[in-house]
Amino acid sequence: MTPTITVEELRALLEKGAPVTILDIRPTQDFLDWHIPGSLHVDAYDALKAHDPTALTVVELPTDQPVVTVCASGKISQIAADFLATHGFHAFSLEGGMKAWSLAWSSAEITVNNAPVHIIQVRRTGKGCLSYLIGIEKEAFVIDASLDPQVYLDLARNRGWHITRVFDTHIHADHLSRSRQLAERSGAILLLPDQQRASFPFTALHDGDTIVTKDTMLTALHTPGHTLESTCYLLNHAFLFTGDTLFSTSVGRPDLHADEQEARARAALLYHSLHKLLALPAETFILPGHTSQPVPFDGVPIGARLAEIDERVDLLHVRRTVFVETLIQRLPPTPPNYERITQLNEAGFLPDEDITELEAGANRCAIT
Ligand SMILES: [Fe+2]
Question: What's the gap in Å between 309 CA and the centre of ligand 1?
Answer without folding.
Answer: 19
